[in-house]
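Example complex used in Figure S2.
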Amino acid sequence: MSDPLNLLWLQSGGCGGCTMSLLNAESPDVLGCLDMAGINLLWHPSLSLETGLQVTNILNDIAAGKIKLDILCLEGSVIRGPNNTGKFHMLAGTGEPMMHWVERLSAQAEYVVAVGTCAAYGGITAAGGNPSDACGMQYDGEKKGGLLGADFRSKVNMPVVNIAGCPTHPNWVTDTLAEIALGDFSEANMDSLGRPRSYADQLVHHGCTRNEFYEFKASAEKPSDLGCMMEHMGCVGTQAHADCNTRLWNGEGSCIRGGYACINCTAPGFEEPGHNFTQTPKIAGIPVGLPTDMPKAWFVALASLSKAATPERLKKNAVADHIEVAPSIHLKNKR
Amino acid sequence: MSRRIIGPFNRVEGDLEVQLDIEDGQVNDAWVVSPMYRGFEQMLHGKNPTDAMTYVPRICGICSVAQSVAAAYAIADAQGIQMPKNGELATNLILANENLADHLTHFYMFFMPDFTRDVYQNEPWFDTMKTRFYPVKGTAAKDMLPARAQFMHMMGMLAGKWPHTLSIQPGGTSRAITAVEKVRLLGILYQFRSFLENTLFGDKLEHIANLSSSKDLQAWVMQNEHRQSDFGAFLTIADSLNLAAMGNATDHFMSFGVYPVAGKKLFDAGVWQDGIASPLQPETIKEDVSHSWMKNGSEPKHPREGVTIPDPDMKDGYTWCKAPRLGGDVVEVGALARQLVNGHPLIQSLVAESGGNVRNRIVARLLELALVVVEMEKWVKEVQPDEPFYHLTSMPDEAEGAGMMEAARGSLGHWLQVKNGRILNYQIIAPTTWNFAPRDIHGQLGALEQALLGAPVREGEDTPVSVQHIVRSFDPCMVCTVH
Ligand code: SF4
Ligand code: SF4
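Predicted assembly (818 residues):
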């Protein structure tokens, strides 16, 4: 690897959770990853020493092209309100709206990276009536546009990289940054919503520990039940793009292993599902949001078949908080 | 005299600006500004009450579990139900996991790095501190981050992920703990205890927990193996820079209490002033918006009736933060307040001697690391894998509830009103809202504003290092403050 890459990290309309998640990175930890990838941190609000004037000097030097900016990361959505003034987030110490800083600095960056669903699409900050008029860097929900515009290209001719997730998994970030540093990351590595395909080409449903329950539609009825959460509990793991059940969180977990539904937090608009997050909306008893690549009639036919064939073990365990019936034991040498 | 504006003020959670008047080498007046508004209270209006469990953790990435717990309590209160004991234990474990990780992050990554600033280059401890605590490059973060990440495997197991779990629910937790998982949880705690005992304290947790007076603490740090530890290093610096004389606020403390098990909280609720403990009177909590960018024109309100309507052009406004007051008084919240109210003898002795200040706030936080890990080991053992973790509940169409608890940074309250099955009003007062509040209608400065008065300013300093110590000693979280 050649010269170190300069990275600047800014936070706007979010909760800081993606940084907190990043601190959970393991083997190596986040500082080790930067070191390994040859990334030099120009400034990060949670990690760096520089405060006040020292920071605004760095920002001004980047904006003026005096310091090279290889990677700009924004965490949190862009706050445009009220009335497009950006006054809901003035960058402290500068008397200027953060959205102007983000625009100015993006123009200098080789790569622009949106960390988390807020920075990518607006995220939770855009929920309800979107009181702060939040949007993403290059998206406003599903629509292209956002702060930088649909046609924005960074200095290496790349659109904004959307490492979506609420929060985003630490490895989705460390892997993507390291791929960029290695020169291995191009537009071909991004899906049609700008997400790194390294994790977004998978579904949360893959590797879910409840897959056997899913097969037989043995369903959980309340929190802490072990069954599949698609039928009643709002799980959209069959449609959510992420590898949460194969690349675990905090060493061992995933939403589903924690006993609650996947709410598709890597997708634009997840913040307003149009129904209760943890209840499956149904029409005539059939869940509305069926797996995307399966014809509805087939799903219904298969589901009723598999329901009829559900083993007793799965039926019982699905509505219990621990395994009540163990798989039966088959001895080879029958007496 | 001119107004000096300091920002971005980093290594706090969220964006912060501090404005100072400086005269004769010290801070003469201070204004604390929270410059970002998102509007969670507005977003929640009209939502299904249980959806609050998805939204509120996302107020804050550093204390998202605390927000979940407060919401779960508020909804449970509205539903008139109680978690089963297992649910309480699991919730306490998840919350303690977050709170302790927070204390650790604060000490290692937010607070200590300030002692590596060049203004201290002539201090005898400077080189050692720079090697250990310099941001990104120091050895301390490299030791701490893996220990923290492994400790948070507990989150992976019990909460699915952190931040922003949904396993904490009004009716309990959605993740039962099996007998063998109890063993694994104890394993995680064993490993974390080793880090604390070998690196942070250089001593057994029980010895730290049993320190009972300021004299005790002094004797403790005189022992060489203790002085070599990170806590020892902090105490040495605190002594050499007299951090106990820095950052006094009102010396009026409050705690909502936290970690209930079967009706008894591990740390009690209450108020502490002038060496006297008194019960908390939640009805006297009122939020004043006279100096906030909020529509006002009315009397300060109890959060049950509170409103949040932003207006960046409000005359006299200078922050998005409201000004909560207890019986009209400015109170300080946090680990120091919590341990004082709960009667820990070391903290009572330190506060009797020098009040609430930079040193004592840090000591209280580290003390909690020792106190709570020991308790977590007990909670794990108390879990009964055959008993339920969750009680099924339903939400009445009309209801009211309050959820009051302690996040790492202090007292957190959620107040909820439900009408026609929808959220009519949801108001939140976060810990930093108490500490970093602006002036009120009577001109009383917020706790940090008071703590900054008199802070020494060295020749040629843009951003006085004393101000940095004081601000960070509160471990503020600005995203929570304003939500
Ligand atoms: S719980 Fe969700 S992710 Fe798991 S099997 Fe069911 S639908 Fe798929
Ligand atoms: S399981 Fe679903 S909701 Fe949970 S983190 Fe993964 S994508 Fe987000």
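Residues 170-182 of chain A form the longest helix (13 residues). The mean pLDDT of chain A is 95.
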